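Sharing a chain and its predicted structure for anyone who wants a worked example. Both blocks are below, sequence first, C-alpha cells second.
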Amino acid sequence: MKACVRGAAVAVAAAATAAALAACGEGAGNDSGGGNQTKIGVLLPDSTTARWETNDRPLLDRRIKELCDECTVEHANAKGDVAIQQAQMDSMLAEGVDAILLAAVDARSLGPTVAKADEAGIPVIAYDRLAEGPISGYASFDGEEVGRLQGTALLKAMGDRESGDQIVMMNGDPSDPNAVSFKAGALSVLEGRVEIAKAYDTPQWRTEVAHMNMSGAISALGADNIDGVYAANDGLAAGSIAALKANKVDPLPPVTGQDAELGAVRRIVADEQYMTVYKPFAPEASAGAALAVAAARGESLDRIATDKVTTSSGSTVPAVLLTPVSVTIDTIEDTVVKDGVYTIQQICTPQLAAACTKAGLT
C-alpha cells in the first residue's frame, strides 16, 4: 500500500470530484461506516441490464463479507454514463478505498482513471469486462466462447440452410471489450456458413436502439428474408423480437441472447427467443470478490487466479476465466432452475402455462 502517494493523490482528487458527483447526482453509497475498516469499492456500469443490481451486487456483497469480516463495501452504478463512472471512481480514490472492483461502462475512457488509482496505490480488479489501464486482476467469462455458443446455436436453430440464407447481427457496444470478444467468437462460427446481411453495433447495449436497427433491417431486407438473428445479449434480443413482432414477422426467426434474464427465459418458453447464454453469476461474483479482497489486503492474486490475461498495455495479470453455458428450451431446468436462479413458478406465468407444460416445466 503506497500510503504516502495515496494521501497526496486523494487530496487532489477530493476537491475535483465533489462538484462532479453533485452535478451527476451519483455518489458511491456507503453500506456501513468504520474508521479503520478495509474498504472495497464496487462500480457497476448500468441499470439497463438486469443482472447488475439483481444478481451481481447482492452476490458480491455477500461473498466479500464472507471473506472479510472487517470489509465495508462502497457501491455505485454509473447508469450507462462514462462521466458519472469516472466521477464515482474519483470519489472512491478521494475516500481512500483499499481496492476497486470495476465493471467499466467504457473500458478505454476509464483507462486514465485506472492509471490514477494505480498511482495512488489502489489496486483495480476488472470485473466481467477487461478495463484498460494498469489493472491488477480480472474476473470474467471466456468472451469468445460466449460468441461461439451463440453462433453454433443459431446455425443449429436454422436447420437445413440453403445458399444465401441471411442473418442480422445485433452486436453490443463496441467500447465494451466483451462485445468485441462475443462478436469475434460468433463470426468464427458464422462466417462462410450464412450471409450476414446486416450488422449493427449497439451503443450502451440499449434495447430501443436494437429495436430501431431491426426495424431498419426489416425495411431493407424484407420481412421474409431474415433467417436468423444474432443478438449479443438478452436486451438486444428483446428489442429485436419486439421489432419483428411489430412488423408482423411470423414465424419468428431464431434469435440468440445472453445473460439468462428472466424475460429471456420466458421468451424461450414462448418460442420467441431460441437461446440465451447463462454465465453463472455466483462463481463470477465469488471470483471477483476473492480477487478484490486479496488485493485490498495486499495479498498475492496468483493463489486465486486460474489464468492470465494480457491487458491493452501488454502486461499480463492474474485472471479467473469461467465457462459459459448455452440455455435452450431443453436445458432450462438443468441450468437456471437447478442453480436456483429462477424457480419454475417465476418462469411459468399463467400466460405461459400451456407452453411450460409442453416443455416439461411443471
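Comments welcome. The longest strand covers residues 38-44.
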